[in-house]
């Protein structure tokens, strides 16, 4: 969610800076503004004091047209290559070597003077570290180091209370850039490529009006983090569901649904963690497996030496264990380290867990049934306490009539109350 909000906010900043609309191309999945969970339909805000950043944003590429092929073709100005399709954000990953190869083509075309890239994602530094050289007049700034998660802020119960801020709404990267340099929020903004570009005035890239632009959506004073929680972006879904469950009325459908989804996400995360851990132990032994998978290469070295190996092994893992979710992608480093250890394709196939996905599906179903049973028990117990009192409720509800007496005297009453 936070990344889509960033796109809308970035458009408003560029438009206010004076850039012509025909020079701004927007890619966004567009599933927030009119989502049934949005308490302000048609409105997206980027901080508590901010205004609507969704209004007026053009929908150049939305839904399944937000994919890697279209993105690269737009950057390369290859009009004939722009088509619909399914990839990023819901399809194939964009790998660092693919991004770099596209940037080299862009440089060879001679169609830019200087190119600036801002990248907000967990481990975003790994897209450029040891890959993007100097000499291409490309400057890249990332939200985090190659081995760091990016964080989201304005989460949960921050003050002032705001109906839109149950989920995390703003990547911490944006807050960090706008607040005092001596404050730390968990991840480190990194720079790659031709760093001299970083000394250029922002107005060079964001429009001349940017120098005099005052926008409450980018006002540093509004980015108070003293009352906000900063949450690892890969945990933001879990945090959102947990908060939703905590705040929902006891016995409500909303509380039950949040619990079911929470347990499903937890089961899925646990399964992918166990799959990767088990794979590491099979390939490298119980003692060395975790160490090899979590190894972080020194600064200046790319994530993996053989990118084709990484792409292939990710596909092998997904074929055996199911598609990697946003959370599951934290293990791509581990799969990269398997490639760096020169594990053969055959050995990878042999050791990838065969039945993990089926086990995961069964575990999800089991947790769903257990959650449903628990919720029904709580609902009935709570109803009894409200109608008959805490002390008598359980006794009355569990009372068994003597042999020969029917379950209920008034069957019409019984049918009616079951429906209620």
From TrEMBL:
BP-aspect Gene Ontology terms: proteolysis involved in protein catabolic process; vacuolar protein processing
Gene Ontology annotations for the cellular component aspect, listed alphabetically: vacuole
GO MF annotation, one: cysteine-type endopeptidase activity
Domain of life: Eukaryota
Classification via InterPro entries: Legum_prodom, Legumain_prodom_sf, Peptidase_C13
Residue stretches making up the Legumain prodomain domain: 261-351, 365-420
Family to which this protein belongs: Belongs to the peptidase C13 family.
Name assigned to this protein: Legumain prodomain domain-containing protein
């Amino acid at each position: 969610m936070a990344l889509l909000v960033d796109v809308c906010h970035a458009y408003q900043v560029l438009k206010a800076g004076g850039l012509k609309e025909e020079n701004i191309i927007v890619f966004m999945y567009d599933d927030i503004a009119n989502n049934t969970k949005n308490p302000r339909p048609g409105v997206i805000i980027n901080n508590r004091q901010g205004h609507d950043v969704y209004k007026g944003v053009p929908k150049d590429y939305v839904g399944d047209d937000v994919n890697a092929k279209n993105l690269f073709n737009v950057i390369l100005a290859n009009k004939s290559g722009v088509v619909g399709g399914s990839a990023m954000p819901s399809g194939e990953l964009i790998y660092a070597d693919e991004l770099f190869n596209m940037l080299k083509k862009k440089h060879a075309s001679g169609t830019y003077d200087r190119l600036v890239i801002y990248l907000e994602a967990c481990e975003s530094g790994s897209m450029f570290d040891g890959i993007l050289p100097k000499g291409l007049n490309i400057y890249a700034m990332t939200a985090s180091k190659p081995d760091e998660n990016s964080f989201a802020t304005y989460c949960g119960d921050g003050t002032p209370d705001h109906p839109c801020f149950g989920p995390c709404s703003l990547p911490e990267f944006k807050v960090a850039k706008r607040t005092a340099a001596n404050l730390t929020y968990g991840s480190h903004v990194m720079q790659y490529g031709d760093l001299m570009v970083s000394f250029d005035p922002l107005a060079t890239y964001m429009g001349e009006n940017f120098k005099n632009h005052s926008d409450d959506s980018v006002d540093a004073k509004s980015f108070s983090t003293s009352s906000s929680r900063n949450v690892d972006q890969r945990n933001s879904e879990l945090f959102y569901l947990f908060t939703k469950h905590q705040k929902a009325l006891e016995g409500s459908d909303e509380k039950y649904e949040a619990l079911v989804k929470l347990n499903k996400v937890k089961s899925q995360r646990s399964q992918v963690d166990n799959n990767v851990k088990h794979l590491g132990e099979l390939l490298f032994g119980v003692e060395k497996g975790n160490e090899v998978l979590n190894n972080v290469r020194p600064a200046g070295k790319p994530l993996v030496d053989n990118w084709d190996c990484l792409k292939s092994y990710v596909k092998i893992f997904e074929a055996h264990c199911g598609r990697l979710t946003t959370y599951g992608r934290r293990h791509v480093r581990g799969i990269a380290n398997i490639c760096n250890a020169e594990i053969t394709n055959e050995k990878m196939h042999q050791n990838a867990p065969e039945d993990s996905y089926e086990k995961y599906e069964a575990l999800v179903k089991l947790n769903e049934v257990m959650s449903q049973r628990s919720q029904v028990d709580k609902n009935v117990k709570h109803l009894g306490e409200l109608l008959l009192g805490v002390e008598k409720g359980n006794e009355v509800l569990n009372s068994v009539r003597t042999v020969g007496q029917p379950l209920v005297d008034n069957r019409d009453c019984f049918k009616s109350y079951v429906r209620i």
